[in-house]
């Protein structure tokens, strides 16, 4: 059973919060800004990956033979991005 979305995002926030608090205690404003930007970027990427996980795991009862499957669609997107 995969971990829940909330648990994963809470763990991510906890890791960044600890590092941010250390930077704040050291009065390192540059590091605080870097951590804030990194957290936002990581959170966005993680949410996209979780959306993909949810989409792939929620297979319909009857798969249409005429449309592409999720893996083929992801491979197509990957090819487009690499251009």
Account of the protein in words:
The protein has 83 residues and is mostly helical. It is 76% helix and 0% strand. It has one domain (5-82). The longest helix is centred in the middle third of the chain and has 29 residues, at 29-57. The radius of gyration is 18 Å and the shape is elongated. The model has no long low-confidence stretch (mean pLDDT 85).
Quick synopsis:
The protein is mainly alpha-helical.
> Any low-confidence stretches, pLDDT <50, length ≥5?
none
The geometry reads as: elongated
Order of helices and strands: HHH
Distance between the termini: 36 Å
Gyration radius from CA atoms, angstroms: 18 Å
**How much strand content do the residues show?**
under 5%
Structural class: mainly alpha
- Largest sheet report: none
Task: Give the number of domains.
Answer: 1
What integer is the average pLDDT?
85
Number of helices: 3
What percent of residues adopt helix (DSSP H or I)? over 70%
How many strands? 0
Draw up the topology in text.
Elements (H helix, E strand, L loop, with lengths): L4 H21 L3 H29 L12 H13 L1
Helix pairs in contact: 1-2
Features:
83 residues; 0% strand; mainly alpha; 3 helices; single chain; elongated
């Amino acid at each position: 059973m995969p971990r829940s979305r909330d648990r994963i995002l809470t763990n991510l926030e906890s890791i960044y919060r600890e590092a941010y608090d250390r930077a704040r205690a050291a009065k390192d404003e540059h590091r605080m800004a870097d951590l804030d930007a990194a957290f936002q970027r990581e959170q966005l990427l993680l949410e996209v990956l979780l959306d993909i996980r949810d989409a792939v795991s929620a297979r319909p009862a009857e798969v249409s033979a005429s449309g592409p499957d999720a893996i083929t669609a992801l491979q197509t997107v990957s090819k487009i991005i690499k251009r």
